[in-house]
Amino acid sequence: MQCKVCDEEFDREVRAPKIVPCGHTVCLRCLQGGSETKCPTCNKVFDAAPASLLSNLTLLENLEQQGEAR
């Protein structure tokens, strides 16, 4: 599965799938790349540091089952 912002595959480290407060899932690298902490999908601003957001564990588990996780 890929991040809809950068089209790169999710992984457990650099491109960990993070759930932003608006509900979208975006990779950590895309969230860290901006000057503001906002969702790159809907532009909703949030106050949490990207690394502190919850990872989408369901997505990570599905990737591992498919053998795609790095």
UniProtKB/TrEMBL annotation:
Keywords: Metal-binding, Zinc, Zinc-finger. It comes from the Eukaryota. One of its GO terms (molecular function) is zinc ion binding. InterPro entries: E3_ubiquitin-ligase_RING, Znf_RING, Znf_RING/FYVE/PHD, Znf_RING_CS. The keyword Zinc-finger applies. Residues 3-43 form the RING-type domain. Gene3D superfamilies: Zinc/RING finger domain, C3HC4 (zinc finger) (3.30.40.10). The keyword Zinc-finger applies. It holds the Pfam family zf-RING_5. PANTHER family: E3 UBIQUITIN-PROTEIN LIGASE TRIM-21-RELATED, PROTEIN CBG20824. This is E3 ubiquitin-protein ligase NHLRC1-like. It comes from Frankliniella occidentalis (Western flower thrips). The lineage of its organism: Eukaryota, Metazoa, Ecdysozoa, Arthropoda, Hexapoda.
